[in-house]
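>> received
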Amino acid sequence: MKKALLIVDVQNDFCPGGALGVKEGDKVVPVINKLMKQFDLVISSQDWHPADSVHFEKWPVHCVAGTWGAQLHADLKDHKIDLKLRKGTDNEDDGYSAFEATNVALTKYLRDHEVTTIYVCGLTTDYCVKQTALDAVKQGFHTFVITDAIAAVNAQPGDDRSALHEMYAAGCILMESEEI
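>> returned
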């Protein structure tokens, strides 16, 4: 049984100073860097939106393909990442889940690498982390969410707690990085 670390959208635009900056979003980076050493396989996802995406009818313009905002956070040790996924690449696609990546079929890739267990971390708890974790469970993976390595947008107060509850109710195991 192999385990994979799935780092969701730790990009400049989701960190403080970015177009859709999450309060303390950059605080997940040192935790994630420490975690990478413990995994057989490390995968990251990135929002990679076209400039005219319908996604921007709901959200400020962020993570536009090829821009500084779409790049992974500079302090993230990306040389340890085995696979980088791009999602939200279509004008009509929100691309919340890493399982919606357009450059690699993630479920097939994980199965081909005999991964049975996924640990999800990154940004944001209430959108992309949540949807990725829910999709991992739907695909039959044992799914853990690392609670000290995630941060929320909290468009509405309490969205983070609601997302954690939804993930737990779907079968995700919530844990801190020290428990791994």
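>> The domain at 2-179 is CATH 3.40.50.850 (Rossmann fold).
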